[in-house]
Amino acid sequence: MAKQFLLRRSVFILAFFILAGLIYALGQDLSFPTDIIHLDTAVSQLPRYAVYSLMRMFLAYLLSFFFSIAYGYIAATSPKAEGPMVAFLDVLQSIPILGFFPVAVIFFVSLFNGSRIGVEVASIFLIFTSMSWNMAFSVYESFKTVPSDLVDAAGALGLSGWHCFSKALFPICIPRLIYSSMISWAGGWYFLIAAEIIAIGPVKHELPGLGSFLIHSTENGQVDRTILALLLLVGMIILFNLFVWQPLGVWSEKFRYEFSVSGPPRHSFSLLWYRKILATTQFRALRKLSFFTLSPLKKTITLFQRFGGKMTIIVIKGMGVLCLVAIFYAVSSHLIVFVEGFSKPFPIEIRNIPIAIGASFLRLVVAYILALSWTLPVAYWVGQSPPALKVVTPIAEIGAAIPAPALFPFIILFGIHVMGGMNAAAILLILTGMQWYLLFNLLGGVQNIPADLKEVARSLGLSRWHAFRRLFLPAVFPALITGSITAWGGGWNALIVSEYLIYRHEIHSVTGIGAMLDQAIYESGDAQMILITLLSMILTITLLNRFFWRKLYVYALGHFKIEY
Amino acid sequence: MNFIEVQKVFKFFQQDRVLMPVLKEISFKVHEGEFIALVGPSGCGKSTLLRLLTGLVLPTEGSVLYKGKSLTSVNLDSAMVFQSFALFPWLTVMGNVEVGLEARGLSEEMRHKRAAEFIDKVGLDGFEEAYPRELSGGMKQRVGLARALAVEPKLLCMDEPFSALDPLTSLALREEVLMMWEDHTMAVNTIIMVTHMIEEAVLMADRVLVLSPRPGTFLADIKIDLPRPRDKKDVRVNEISDQIFSLMAR
After folding, report:
1. Does the CB of B82 have a partner CB in chain A at under 8 Å?
2. Chain B residues with CB inside 8 Å of A276's CB?
3. Residues with Cβ < 8 Å from B139, sequence gap 6 or more?
């Protein structure tokens, strides 16, 4: 036990340094390609931009989908890999999106010789980094909690390999995967602005898209254009919710492995539509056609699986080893550079880091308290009257997806002119990156309160306050902690779009670690400064997670878990 | 005045924009001091009917009268025992029993005293500080019973209280529930129990109300005059059980 613990810890530290080294090493040779893409900011381009952004989001999501299933599955099923993989994911999760800039820029942009494709791929990669970690975690946790009788049943029926995965294991993780996808999708929109402008130092690549359009209009102070783009964004989010996430959410309900059903089933009109379409004769004909064309393919796949199973495993293993070697080579060859980064005299600004972290931390605390003070009552309200969920969920999904900088013109009016100061504005912006995660998790927790416990509270005549204290608060406590962990993660990430903003060609910034990182990336492009701010930020986040949130989480599970 | 009177109650639930009937024109009366069992095939709405009787659920049509007054919200003279026990996992045995008393505004000292008394009555003396997860199923249901009885209800509603227990445990607990019902020092003297086990109903109740499959309608009201304690090998018990079974199987 102790040995494994030590192993995990050392792997965690190692992963941390490898990653830091990688980021820094890649950031070292900042030879930026010169092929600069020009952004046309005509309003007429807006629909085209929206489609571009949507395509990027979609590709990034697809990538995240497969990544999270593969990563989650391997981490959950192979005991040797579990510890390091989870630790690695932990570190990845705490890296703000700007932290991936050097990788995106050097690796993808230079891989394609600075052409448009390279920048596009880099942008998709950045969106991917804001989507996938949370999904991978939920897949991992679902696989960890697959009911053992289901696994036994699959074994007894002779299911193995792909069949066992697709029939018994994967369905179990569908509800959580879809739920986290929804949150990730919103997160992708939130960071779209940071992902469509790829810059290190003075060189800037701006991809045509909704994100770039939004940032341009705010930088130039064209509030009308900002509103227009925001409306388009909100419209797209609403349509996507109605026609994708809502039907998927309802559909995923059937994969829930539970015996107690609480409340009437949810429904979605678009799901009913889809089902009607599926039942039409035309669609049946189409399906028949695809069956004839696809069945030889399926047969070959099965044949391949039967005879080529061992070969595939060897090939996959070989590829894995190759990847590891490549990473190792990249890291070791740049390790010298990494050491150099620390041996070079540190810039003077480094002294400001502790103060900056402290200031950012205080802002996060204030934003967190603000977030708690409204999400808890809302979640309680939803718990009391479940139909309210129909109102709250879409609002939360839209709210979570609106990028913070797009709100800046409005927040600056409110924050700076009404509440006095950029600090208030920064806190409000951080709040936009925190509150929704808290709300999402609390809503999830509230829905999981067993119906009979709620009935007990009612039949015993508990007053509102007693029901809140004795039932609601303890029942949602684990969800509150997970929500807080993600909210704080989101908050740290949101710092980079909250503490440093350009509005009407004027830079508004406050003392904070997010602002420091922004300055290092967008203004000076100083690799050493990027490295040091990034490292200190990651270190703060991981330490807080390890020694505060993780402990609280374990406590919450031990005391407040509802087992049935 | 009747203790409880159910008058032409209809209950519908909304499902996919369609109103599904759960209960259809149910009428009956409950007299004070009776032990009533509600039986019927699964999904016939007997649990819904039980919740209608406590005011947890309100009828779509018709009304439920408690002591002559129509129920419009939860009847605080009633208490409920659940199949799943429904204990608060974060509260100790003592905490679980105290919750209802706290809601009724009793002082801490009084709460403690009363809770201890009822924990003792259900035979869990010494387990006051244990958490539900540390208890066996039978003990959990004892806590559920103590929690319901501690608020000194006039009416005790039990939703398949013994279904999640093993046969021996449920046998013992049935005996104890009957003893407490017959004990005149307890406030509770009327019990309504939902069960899907016909024999259990016949062994315990004064009257067995039989519901049809969904939507639940009233099939029969069978009086059981056999003296207690009843023996499940008794011919008359078997006769009545068979009679109810054939009613339900039709």
Report:
1. yes
2. none
3. B124, B127
